[in-house]
Design a protein that fits this description.
The chain has about 270 residues and is of the alpha/beta class. About 30% of the residues lie in helices and about 20% in strands. α2 (about 60-80) links the parallel β3 (about 45) and β4 (about 85-90). α1 packs across α5, α2 (about 60-80) packs parallel to α3 (about 110-125) and α4 (about 155-160) runs parallel beside α6.
Length: about 270
C-alpha cells in the first residue's frame, strides 16, 4: 500500500513510520499552511499530526491545526477516494468511568475539545471512503525524548530513576490510567488497514494501573527512591483520575494482544 503519514516527526509518527516503511510505501508530512499535502496518489492517509499538548491554552491555534485542518484533509481524501485513519484521544471522555465510544463525552482542555469536535463532525458525514478514528489512551514507548512535560510517566520515571530518584505526585495510588505501548498502536493501525469498517474505536489495553504502581515497577528495576511532590496548579481540574478503554467495539473487528506496562519495563 501507498500511505501518507502526517505528523511523522512526532512521537507516534516516528514509530509509525519505522514500523510501516519496511512493508509499505510510506511518505511523511508535517503541517504547513503554505504547503498543504497532496493525497490523490495514496491508498491511505494516517493522520497523526496535531498540537498534542493538553496544556496548550491558545484555543484558535489548536482548533485551526487539530480541527479545521483535519476537516480539510478528510474532504481531500473523500474527493480523491483515499481512505483515512486519524488519531483521536481518550481525553474526550473527561472525568468519567464509562469509556465507551457511544457514551457521553466531557472534554476538559482545548486539545480534548478539538478531538471531540472532529469525532462529532465526522459522525454526521456520509463518507465515500473508509474513515477510522482511534481514541488513544495513555500512549508510551520509544522516541519520547522531545516531548518534555508531555512525555508519559513511563518515560519520565525511567529517566528520573536513572539518576536515583523518581518524583511522584502525592496520592498517586488514586490515579489510574490505561497505559498503551506505541508498538501496539502501530500494529492495530496496520491491522485495520485491511478491515473494511468505518467508525471510532478505542485503543488501550483494557486495564488500568496506578501511577504509584508504575513508579514502583521502575524504581525496583533501577533501585531508585521515590520522592512525593504536590500536583501543580495548572494540572488540577483537568487531570483525569481514571482511564480504562472499553474494547468491545475494537475487538469485534480486529484481534490483538496488548503489552502490559510490567512487560515493557522488564523487557518482555
Amino acid at each position: 500500500m501507498k500511505i501518507l503519514i502526517t505528523g511523522h516527526k512526532g512521537f507516534i509518527g516516528q514509530n509509525m513510520m519505522s514500523y510501516l516503511e519496511s512493508k509499505h510505501e510510506v511518505a511523511g508530512y508535517d503541517f504547513n499552511p503554505e504547503q498543504l499535502p497532496l493525497v490523490k496518489d495514496y491508498d491511505w492517509v494516517i493522520h497523526l499530526g496535531a498540537i498534542s499538548s493538553t496544556t496548550e491554552t491558545d484555543v484558535d491555534k489548536v482548533i485551526l491545526h487539530n480541527y479545521e485542518f483535519t476537516k480539510w484533509l478528510y474532504n481531500q481524501c473523500n474527493a480523491y477516494k483515499v481512505n483515512m485513519q486519524y488519531a483521536s484521544s481518550a481525553s474526550v471522555y473527561g472525568d468519567t468511568r464509562h469509556f465507551t465510544e457511544s457514551g457521553p463525552s466531557d472534554p476538559k482542555s482545548p486539545y480534548a475539545w478539538s478531538k471531540y469536535l472532529f469525532d462529532r463532525w465526522i459522525g454526521g458525514m456520509n463518507p465515500q471512503i473508509i474513515v477510522q478514528g482511534f481514541r488513544y489512551f495513555n500512549v508510551y514507548g520509544p522516541n519520547e525524548n522531545h516531548k518534555g512535560n508531555q512525555a508519559s510517566p513511563i518515560h519520565k520515571f525511567t529517566e528520573q530513576a536513572k539518576t536515583g530518584k523518581i518524583k511522584l505526585f502525592e496520592n498517586s495510588e488514586n490515579y489510574k490510567r490505561d497505559f498503551v505501548c506505541v508498538s501496539d498502536i502501530c500494529e492495530v493501525h496496520e491491522k485495520m488497514l485491511d478491515i473494511n469498517e468505518k467508525g471510532v474505536y478505542n485503543i488501550g489495553t483494557g486495564n488500568a494501573i496506578s501511577f504509584q504502581q508504575v513508579a514502583d515497577l521502575i524504581a525496583n528495576k533501577y533501585s531508585a527512591d521515590i520522592e512525593y511532590i504536590p500536583m501543580p496548579d495548572n494540572l488540577k481540574g483537568q487531570y483525569q483520575e481514571y482511564t480504562c478503554a472499553n474494547l468491545d467495539s475494537l475487538s469485534t473487528v480486529v484481534k490483538h494482544k496488548f503489552k502490559s506496562v510490567e512487560e515493557y519495563v522488564n523487557g518482555c
